[in-house]
Amino acid sequence: MLPGGGAAEADGVVRRLLRAGTVARYKVMKNWGVIGGLAAAVAAGMYVLWGPITERKRRRKGLVPGLLNLGNTCFMNSLLQGLSSCPSFIKWLEEFTAQYKTEQNQSTEHQYLSVTLLHLLRALSCQEVTEDDVLDASCLLEVLRLYRWQISSFEEQDAHELFHVLTSSLEDERDRQPRVTHLFDVHSLEQPEITQKQISCRTRGSLPPVSNHWKFQHPFHGRLTSNMVCKHCEHQSPVRYDTFDSLSLSIPAAVWGRPMTLDHCLHHFISSESVKDVVCDNCTKIQAKGILNGQSVENQKTTFVKQLKLGKLPQCLCIHLQRLSWSNQGTPLKRHEHVQFNEFLIMDIYKYRIPVHKSSQNELNQKNTEETTPGTKDGIAVKPSDAEQPSGPKPLFMNGACSSSFLMSSGTFPLAAFPECSSPVYLYRLMAVVVHHGDMHSGHFVTYRRSPPSPKNPLSVSSQWLWISDDTVRKASLQEVLSSSAYLLFYERVHSRVQHQSLELRAEE
């Protein structure tokens, strides 16, 4: 214990320290005020000279805006980036939504899926000026709810399923008929009725043209043909047509030492299969002719060969590689193997062709014999059109295959027997690839897509590729794109100059 004089001295020391601390704190606060003022002045100067930081990031040359992840919406973000790289689809939306601009009530435009989707895709393809480098696509989920689709932004979804939702909803919007007046719609019921005289006057002249927006399909719309032939009498049943907006291809079982290619998946899709115990009307008629006294004949059941072909190829082709498989215990598994694909895709050999009558079969065989050599026509060597062929040296592969020689084995189709592959009519260019990382229970979707063309040449196709993961965007190489494990492939058809002219003169199908 300190004596009394020592305690008083100690109290004086403490008071002096407290006063010194107060003065020091005042000086520090005064200096911080000066420092804060200087920082604000510097920030204001930077804003005046260079603008906001987000604006500088968005204006990086060759990049596109990203999309905000609203929880688990990477499936939607990746699909929108892929669709925005398809100019034909954006052009179709522009033509389709032109009808809404002529309507008197433009406040309902936000209720249409086509209008909302067009604004998003134009912004992602840098066709609309936006102040943000990251966009919010929640408006798409809101408009889908008006179409009775309840898609949560906090649950993991599939990008391919969302693609079907968008295409089917666009078809519903296209086919939507004028609504019948509801009994509780008093305003419509109070409108004066049209008299019979007014109706007759309307029908005297030529009827106004019906808007084409309700007639044509979206550019992803295609048709499949189903062909069945009796193995006994070779009678062919009528061809059946089914529509599709994407080709969902299963991945065949891998063979050791042989790479899996997109051609393998396509060939597996259209490969023929035998269907047993099918009633053949032609066999039944033949059997009835050999029986006298008009006795009844039982329907003859035979085995038919069924094969799928592509009856109508779309302008924009979406290919879905099925990576879902099931274990022996019934649990879902994801197939991670790489499927080789190319920047250009030839679809001529998968196109359905009308069968030729037997009387002219010999002439067709003779013509095919003359044209079996690639690069020839009528026995004369010709040079393929530059507009139909990729630039650079002629590739030695077909749709992902490094060589077509291994496709000559049993059970596969001989590519050399299709001379049209040397000058393809149905040539497609790769525009975007959607990749899924993870397993069947959780994961993440990213997109590889082409950079938008320059404003100086909007009809050109950029060779620069981008890698996009939600709001992160960076440049990528073509080799990186082709090395990815694709889940969705977006291709767009390339027309030659001759095809552009012929499309105006005759219908393709």
Descriptive report:
33% of the residues lie in helices and 20% in strands. It has helices at 4-50, 53-58, 74-83, 87-101, 113-124, 138-146, 159-175, 186-189, 196-202, 262-270, 281-289, 361-370, 478-482, 497-505, and strands at 66-67, 134-135, 222-230, 240-244, 247-250, 273-279, 301-312, 316-322, 324-326, 332-334, 344-346, 376-377, 380-381, 427-438, 443-450, 465-469, 472-476, 486-494. Helix 3 crosses helix 7 and helix 4 (87-101) packs across helix 5 (113-124).
Task: Provide tags for this entry.
eight-stranded mixed β-sheet, 509 residues, 20% strand, 14 helices, four-stranded antiparallel β-sheet, elongated, alpha+beta
Number of helices: 14
Rg, Cα atoms, Å: 33 Å
- Strand proportion, as a percent range, falls in 15-25%
Instruction: Please tally the β strands and state the result.
Output: 18
Q: Distance between termini?
A: 109 Å
Question: Fraction of residues in helices?
Answer: 25-40%
The structure class reads alpha+beta
